[in-house]
Amino acid sequence: MGDVGLVMTNITKDFPGVKALDTVSLTVRYSEVLTLVGENGAGKSTLMKVLSGVYLPDAGTMTLNGKPYRPAGPRDAAQLGIALIHQELSLLPNLSLAENVMLGRFPVHHGLLAHKELLDTAQIYLERVGISLDPRTITGGCSVAIQQQVEIAKALSQKPRILVFDEPTASLGDEETEVLFGITESLKADGVGIVWITHRLSEISRIADRIVVMRDGAVVANWDEPDVPITEIIRAMVGRPVDDIYPPLDVPTDEVVLSVRGLTRPGEFEDVSFDVHAGEILGIAGLVGAGRSELVETICGARVATAGTVNLEGRPLHARSPGDAVQAGLVLIPEDRKTSGLAQRLTVEDNVGLPKRGTLKGLVNNWALRRDVVEAIDAVSLKGGLDQLAETLSGGNQQKGVIAKWLTLSPKMVIFDEPTRGIDVGARQAIYRIMHDLAARGVGIVAVSSDLPEVLGISHRIAVISNGRLTGILDRSEATSESVMALAVS
Question: pTM for this one?
Answer without folding.
Answer: 0.65
